[in-house]
Design a protein that fits this description.
The protein is built from five helices and nine strands. The chain is α+β, with helices and mostly antiparallel strands. A hairpin with a 5-residue loop joins strand 1 and strand 2.
Length: 200
């Protein structure tokens, strides 16, 4: 039970990590974190160690940690009282993030499409040494992709509307869930999808 996962928020209430119940209790006892609890109306309350212990005595749950002198509820979300940064993380090179960068817009004709109607195009074709990188991949609609083929854009009488670059925004924060914790975490994080790294 002490090895179960707890969602960790920074003091700005942004999800930054997961830790074990054991680590959460350590942070709680040291006064570095508080437990976040929500009611059925999605109002959020915080508890330091003593108030969490008191709540545990008044409103016990099935999942309780037993000590010699008392029982205490397992926290599912904690908020750090001092840490306000987000962990540094490079934006993953994924289909989802390429479509986000290009706003689901074909970079040749400028039209917006559903993702199912978009392809990824190598600006410098792979046959000519083009790499699969942020700076060489763009969203392209199927007709434009077919028209360009394995040529350079100007050889196909086409022009990029925007030079592709590595994005500077942060990706979705992504954590591994288990079903029981998902419900209490969902207010703080989004599930990432299409999150497989692309590579040559």
């Amino acid at each position: 039970m002490l090895d179960r996962q707890v969602l960790v928020l920074n003091r700005l209430w942004q999800a930054v990590n997961v830790c074990t119940v054991r680590r959460a209790f350590t942070l709680l006892c040291q006064g570095q974190a508080q437990v976040v609890q929500s009611d059925k109306d999605n109002n959020f309350f915080t508890h330091d160690f003593e108030s969490w212990r008191g709540l545990s005595a008044r409103e016990p749950e099935a999942d309780m940690v037993h000590t010699i002198s008392f029982k205490i509820r397992i926290p599912r979300v904690i908020v750090l009282l001092l840490f306000d940064r987000l962990p540094k993380k490079e934006v993953k090179f994924t289909r989802h993030n390429i479509f986000e960068r290009d706003k689901n817009t074909c970079q040749y004709c400028g039209n917006v499409f559903d993702r199912k109607d978009l392809n990824l195009d190598h600006v410098l074709p792979r046959e000519k040494g083009g790499l699969t990188t942020w700076e060489n991949i763009v969203c392209s609609c199927i007709p434009c992709n077919s028209r360009k083929g394995n040529r350079l854009a100007h050889d196909a009488n086409m022009h990029l509307i925007r030079k592709p670059k590595r994005p500077k925004w942060r990706p979705f924060v992504n954590f591994a869930f288990n079903g029981e914790q998902e419900e209490s975490w969902k207010h703080f994080i989004n599930l990432a999808y299409w999150n497989v790294e692309l590579s040559d």
